[in-house]
Amino acid sequence: MKKIEPITDPKAVKSSILLFKQGALSLEDWHVLTQGLYSKNSLLSFQNDWQVFVEYCREVNVCPLPAAVTAVRRFIEAKSTLRKASSIKRYIITVSMMHRVHGLSDPTRHREVRFTLNKLYQEKADEADQATAFHYHHLQSLHSKLCTSDRLKDIRDLLIWTLCFECMLKRSELAAIQFEDIIKTEYGFTLQISDTSMALSPEASALIELWFEMTAITDGPLLRRINKHQQLGDAPMDHSSIYRVFRRAAEELGVQGTLTFSGQSPRVGASQDLSDSGLTIKEIQQQGRWKSPAMPAQYVGNKQARDEAMDKFKRKLDKD
Q: Within this chain, do residues 24 and 90 fall inside the same structural domain, yes or no?
């Protein structure tokens, strides 16, 4: 965390606190608050994380700034069932920064909060290793069941499962896909993620065609929220929405009592399926766009390769 000087003028502090209590603020507001020390992506993270905390505080009718120790502790407990430890850690970093910048006592430093966080980290240790694998046969079963549906939600969710598995997408990558990232070619469609262009299968291309036909979207987010009346919204999918889509996959497959899928599950399952088909850890790493072979090695059960890769990656970071 970069050193941001606290606001010292009492009037400016009061004004800023009133502003940030609202939650929904522009990137320019965050740029000013953080004194221009952070990139746009970092500001987007702060903006999203603070909004999550403010919305929780509104739900339970407590003040977000300054926040009480109990409110922060209960926030962690509430989000621990839906979020990964890394996401919750990021939330707490943002909450801490907001209090320090405004010269307020930092509730995240209290022993109750630290104890709750440490307990959470222990419970979620090696969370990725524990993620249930979502395999190709799971995707095939869901496709057979839902591909002829005329319900918007069925086609959207099937498209999500398909893209996540075929392209080994992270939740953040999935949520960020825009209409223009889907490119039609003479062979079907490709998906552009950062600098990588991935050809989609005929099944995925057919779902894209159907999705465009049903929604008539021509710009903006590819995957969006759908209300209970089957009406498509403008807002993109968030992490909670994606979590619910993968929880639904287990329900549709009739395995909700034994398997719990998460947004990480397709990357785990695809890694294992690719390994079973003969691909090397290095090839799986490239296909999944990992910086290090450590994670795909862990997913396919190669602990020695994972540990060696992790040590090598850490040494590289130290040199950098």
A: yes
Same domain, 255 and 171: yes
User: Does the pLDDT at position 80 exceed 70?
Assistant: yes
Residues 6 or more apart whose Cβ sits within 8 Å of residue 35: 4, 5
Domain hosting 80: range is: 10-125
Q: Using CA atoms, how far apart are residues 216 and 113, in angstroms rounded to an integer? A: 47
Q: HSE of 289 in the Cβ direction (CA atoms, 13 Å)?
A: 13
Question: What does the DSSP 8-state code read for residue 28?
Answer: H
Q: What is the pLDDT of residue 172?
A: 86
- Residue 258 burial (CB count, 10 A): 9
Instruction: Tell me the pLDDT tens digit for each residue of 241-263.
Output: 888 999 999 999 998 777 889 88
d(C-alpha 208, C-alpha 156), whole Å? 9
The DSSP symbol for 179 reads G
Q: What are the tens digits of pLDDT across the range 132-171?
A: 899 999 999 999 999 999 999 999 999 999 999 999 998 8
CB 193 within 8 A of CB 221: no
Q: In CATH, what number is assigned to the domain containing residue 246?
A: 1.10.443.10
Threshold 0.90, pTM exceeds: no
- Report the pLDDT value the prediction gives residue 2, as an integer from 0 to 100: 67
Helix runs in 61-179, H state only:
69-79, 85-101, 111-123, 127-130, 136-146, 152-167, 171-176
Residue with the larger pLDDT of the pair 129 and 44? 44
